[in-house]
Amino acid sequence: MSVVLNGKEIAASIIENIKKQTEKLQEKPTLAIILVGHNEASRIYVRNKCSAAQKAGLQAELLEFEENVSAKTLKEKIQSLNLDSHIHGIIIQLPLPAHLPTQELLETVDPLKDVDGFHPLNAGLLQNNNPAAFAPATARGVMTLLRETGVELEGKNALVIGRSQIVGKPVAQMLLNKNCTVTIAHSKTQNLPALVQNADIVVAACGRPKMVKASWLKKGAIVMDVGINRVENKLTGDVDFEPAKEVASFITPVPGGVGPMTVAMLLQNTLEAYLKQKNS
Ligand code: NAD
């Protein structure tokens, strides 16, 4: 029987802590959120980010664009936000409509305001284990939950299932920075159950509902479920949670695990961006 890590509670205490810090500031750190089109899930995520920002004493400025907005218009907007000294963090809510060049737009964000950590400069700093990097919020959320377990990470076998730019790769990099022995699995990986069986830490970020089975897990493994899948109108993770919690030592639920941590870490990054900009 495992400890179920309560991401909601841990995130709330991080937000409370950010609030204590923002109360002492003369100006409210401000996060600009670029939202394009009518993707329902994106709208929910953005709403959550705005309300959490308010709780943390930060300001969120929502910039909405029509589905058919041009790359040029977005680029110009990002460039003006880069120069605006009242804006301390900028995020582009993904996914963008197919006609837009996502990577090019992400690279337009000033790395000092890139609180999603998606700019290649921040990815490079993370790779160099440089503390100046803004780490992507979900990856930082996973690492914070791992710290909550109190388990020493050094030397552990960590398996990250998923190699996306925004979750899998940064989590794997951060685990490596903590001296884990890291394996990255992806859609072309052979014999995933055997890799899971060997892992002390499993981070599931593949977007496949309940794919990771309890029978694959090593007894006492730490299981971080990043997946958010809507199945029959219910949110489900990438891990078969109920049986897995009988085998794992620590496990995150979906919802209420990594999800709320992602929002809290975005706000933490925004506060840190503000402090960096003021101190530079
Ligand atoms: P993605 O689709 O960009 O990447 C999925 C990755 O999983 C790919 O690298 C792919 O190779 C791998 N994969 C797919 N099928 C696989 C299989 N059968 N075996 C092994 N690997 C496989 O997705 P993403 O953006 O990285 O998100 C992953 C999941 O995490 C999604 O469910 C997403 O909704 C969720 N997510 C949650 C949060 C959060 O805050 N909790 C944040 C971002 C994403």
3D architecture notes:
Helix 1 runs parallel beside helix 10, helix 2 crosses helix 10 and helix 6 packs across helix 7. The strands form three sheets. The protein has a six-stranded parallel sheet with strand order 1-11-8-7-5-6. It contains ten helices and eleven strands. With 280 residues, it is of the alpha/beta class. It is globular and about 50 Å long. The protein folds into two domains: 83 residues, 3-Layer(aba) Sandwich (Rossmann fold); 123 residues, Rossmann fold (3-Layer(aba) Sandwich). Bound molecules: nicotinamide-adenine-dinucleotide. Nicotinamide-adenine-dinucleotide (NAD) binds next to helix 10.
Our count of helices gives: 10
CATH superfamily of the largest domain: NAD(P)-binding Rossmann-like Domain
Give the low-pLDDT segments: none
How would you characterize the largest beta sheet? 6 strands, parallel
CATH architecture of the largest domain: 3-Layer(aba) Sandwich
Strand content: 15-25%
**Arrangement of strands in the largest sheet:** 1-11-8-7-5-6
Please, what is the average pLDDT? 97
Features:
280 residues; Rossmann fold; three-stranded parallel beta sheet; 40% helix; 16% strand; binds nicotinamide-adenine-dinucleotide
Compact summary:
By secondary structure, the chain is α/β, with parallel strands linked by helices.
In terms of topology, how is this protein built?
Blueprint: E1 3-4, H1 7-22, E2 30-36, H2 40-55, E3 59-65, H3 71-83, E4 89-92, H4 102-106, H5 120-127, H6 137-149, E5 157-161, H7 168-177, E6 181-185, H8 192-197, E7 201-204, E8 222-225, E9 229-231, E10 234-236, H9 241-244, E11 250-251, H10 258-279
The structure holds nicotinamide-adenine-dinucleotide (NAD).
